[in-house]
Structure formats: C-alpha cells, structure tokens
UniProtKB/TrEMBL annotation:
Pfam families linked: Thioesterase (PF00975)
Protein family according to the UniProt entry: Belongs to the thioesterase family.
SUPFAM superfamilies per the UniProt record, alphabetical: alpha/beta-Hydrolases
Protein name: Thioesterase II family protein
Xref: Gene3D superfamilies: alpha/beta hydrolase (3.40.50.1820)
PANTHER family the record matches: S-ACYL FATTY ACID SYNTHASE THIOESTERASE, MEDIUM CHAIN, THIOESTERASE
The organism of origin for this protein: Streptacidiphilus monticola
Domain Thioesterase: 16-234
Amino acid sequence: MTRYLQAAAVPDTRLRLFCFPYAGGGASTYAGWQRRLGSRVQVLPVQLPGRESRSGEPRFTDLGALVRDLDRELADELDFPHILLGHSMGALIAYALARHRAELGERLPEALVLSAYRAPHLPAPELARPDADDDELVHSLVGLGGIPQILLDHPDWLSALLPVARDDLLMCSGPGPSGKEPLPLPIQAYAGSDDNLVTPAEVAEWVEYSQCGFSMRTLPGGHFFLREQEDVFLNDLAHSLDTVVGLYH
C-alpha cells in the first residue's frame, strides 16, 4: 500500500475519488465522506508527508517535486478510473498532478473537482507575509476559519500546525504547474460566497483550463465553506459525482 493512502483501494468498478487537503490540513479533512457519498465513488483521502500519521516525514515545499512523488507512488491506483478533488492548496495539487500526467501521456482523471483556489494564471493567494511571525499567521488562519477553536485552546497542537502551514504556503507561492493549454477533461469548481482570500470571480477563471466542459457552484460561507456548510457542499458534490458516474458507466 502506498504511503499516501491510509487504506488500500478496493479493486472494484467504482470511480476512485482522490481528495487532497488544504494548507496545514491532512487526510482527516475528508473523514466521513465515504459514508456521506455512499457507493457512487470510493473515497481515498490523500495523506501528504509531514502531517497526522506521517508527521515524522519531511514536508515538500516544491510543488513539482510533490507531484512527481505522487505520480510515482499512486501510479497503480491512478490507472483505474478516478477523479481528483482538492480544496484550496489541494486544488492546486490536484490540477498540477493532472497536468503532469497529461504531459507524460498517462491516464487522466474522469474529472477535476477544484474548490476555493484561483486559476493558475492568477497570482497565488497570499494568506500572510512570508516573514509573518506566529501571531500574525494564527490571526490570518483564524480570520479564514482555518483553525478550529480546539487548536486555539491547545498551544502544543497549534505549535505543531504552524510549521506545516508555513511549508504549505511556501509551496503554493513557488513555481506553479507548467503549461496553460486546456485539459481534455471536465472541471467542476466551487467557491465560497464570502471567501475573503479567493473570490468566486477568481475561481471562475478555471473555465480556461478544460476542453470538455466547466461548471461552477458558489456556496454560502467563507474560505472553508466545505466545513462550515458540509451538508450543502456534500449534497451538491454528490449530484455532480452522479453526473460523472453516469457518463463513466
């Protein structure tokens, strides 16, 4: 089993839904999604190094290096019909992995689901200054809703999160995916109506990156609307997945 998946993928005929986390997040972001989305897909949260169950491993700060490692490690799993989904930083990773595989002539996702991130030709969102101290970074994360109250109440947990968030933000601010030609796959995008980091108009720019159809939903909430409005988001995602599953079958 690959290090990136906490459980082995089941060799059945369902589409595989690989889920990539936001900056500072881990695979637990998607806990419970399998139960909520049912049998239409096999939910596979991706655990990046340096967090949660992989906290002792060095983190990536270069997007290209991470994508190459993901492609190597997940190659066998990505040879089956699949969808790549990511929220915020996870959207960037999902797109970069699809772009990388397109350049190598490897199997592409049936679709991309990209949430709360600007299209690649736009400047990367700047959550905090590169030299921001811990208090400034915490203030920025709290403002976005990216730090649950329980972390604020446990300084030791918070101190473990901040280095992860810093490295992830460094990766997001570095060189992005190469190539700008549209990919031969559909893109479903999501934005939060009150997101003060990434606007719906910026998310809508992903339309330029698909040859096969683009759709977008703007949902109530801020940058972490998928957590604030989980029921609304998952209900809409289930409907979108049903469309892809119908085309796949």
